[in-house]
Amino acid sequence: MVEAHPSMTAVLFFNVQFMFIILYFHAGNAANCRQAEYKVGDECCPACPPGMHVSEHCTEFTSTLCATCEEGTFQGDHNGREQCFGCKNCDTGLGLKEKKLCKATSDALCEPLDGHFCVDPGGGGCLAAQKHRVCSPGQHISQRGTTDKDTECLHCTGGTFSDGTSTSCQNHTKYDSVELELIKPGSDSECGKPGQHTGILVVIVLVAVVAAI
C-alpha cells in the first residue's frame, strides 16, 4: 500500500480551495452586475442610457443595442427595459394642467388649474386637484385658496354682513327706531316705514287682479 506524501496532500487541498474561491467570485460577479449593467441569464449587459430602451440584449459576443423612446414615452435612468414608460396625462377633468412637458428623459409634471388646489401631490407635481371652496352669503374669506390649500370661510358675527366674496364683514347700516329695519342674509340692512312693504304688496296684487279681468 502506497501512502500519500504529506506535501502532495497539502498541494491537492490548496488546489481544491483555490477552485472553490474562483467559482465563488465568478458566481458573485454574475449575480451582482455593476451599476451601469443589468443581468440577462448569466450575462451582465451594458445598460441603455436615459431616454432609450433595450432593442436587443447583449450576448457573449455582442453588446446591448438601444433605441430612443418613442413620443409620449420616457425613461429617466440607465436601464435594461425593453419599453419606455408612458408619459403622465395632465387631465383637466382632474383639475390639472401641464407644469412641465414630458421629454424622452423625464415624465411630465402637472399642477392645479387656476382656482384649484392639489389634493393628491406626488412625484414632484400634482396627481389630482379640486376647485376652491366658494364662501356663502353671510360668510367672509378668512384665507384665500392657493395651489396647495383650499379657501377658508368664517361666518360674520352679529351686526355685520358679507356676500361671500369679501375678505372681511361690514357693519349693517343703522336706521332711526321709527323706521323698519329689514336684514337679508349676506347683504346690508334696508329701511322702510312700518307697513310700507305690505302696502306695496297689496297694490301689486290689485293691479294683477284688474289686469286679469
UniProtKB/TrEMBL annotation:
<dbReference type="GO" id="GO:0002720">
    <property type="term" value="P:positive regulation of cytokine production involved in immune response"/>
</dbReference>
<feature type="transmembrane region" description="Helical">
    <location>
        <begin position="6"/>
        <end position="25"/>
    </location>
</feature>
<dbReference type="GO" id="GO:0046642">
    <property type="term" value="P:negative regulation of alpha-beta T cell proliferation"/>
</dbReference>
<feature type="domain" description="TNFR-Cys">
    <location>
        <begin position="68"/>
        <end position="110"/>
    </location>
</feature>
<dbReference type="GO" id="GO:0050829">
    <property type="term" value="P:defense response to Gram-negative bacterium"/>
</dbReference>
<dbReference type="GO" id="GO:0050830">
    <property type="term" value="P:defense response to Gram-positive bacterium"/>
</dbReference>
<feature type="disulfide bond">
    <location>
        <begin position="48"/>
        <end position="66"/>
    </location>
</feature>
<protein>
    <recommendedName>
        <fullName>TNFR-Cys domain-containing protein</fullName>
    </recommendedName>
</protein>
<keyword id="KW-0472">Membrane</keyword>
<feature type="domain" description="TNFR-Cys">
    <location>
        <begin position="32"/>
        <end position="66"/>
    </location>
</feature>
<dbReference type="GO" id="GO:0009897">
    <property type="term" value="C:external side of plasma membrane"/>
</dbReference>
<feature type="disulfide bond">
    <location>
        <begin position="45"/>
        <end position="58"/>
    </location>
</feature>
<dbReference type="GO" id="GO:2000406">
    <property type="term" value="P:positive regulation of T cell migration"/>
</dbReference>
<keyword id="KW-0812">Transmembrane</keyword>
<dbReference type="Pfam" id="PF00020">
    <property type="entry name" value="TNFR_c6"/>
</dbReference>
<feature type="disulfide bond">
    <location>
        <begin position="69"/>
        <end position="84"/>
    </location>
</feature>
<dbReference type="InterPro" id="IPR001368">
    <property type="entry name" value="TNFR/NGFR_Cys_rich_reg"/>
</dbReference>
<keyword id="KW-1015">Disulfide bond</keyword>
<feature type="repeat" description="TNFR-Cys">
    <location>
        <begin position="32"/>
        <end position="66"/>
    </location>
</feature>
<feature type="repeat" description="TNFR-Cys">
    <location>
        <begin position="68"/>
        <end position="110"/>
    </location>
</feature>
<keyword id="KW-1133">Transmembrane helix</keyword>
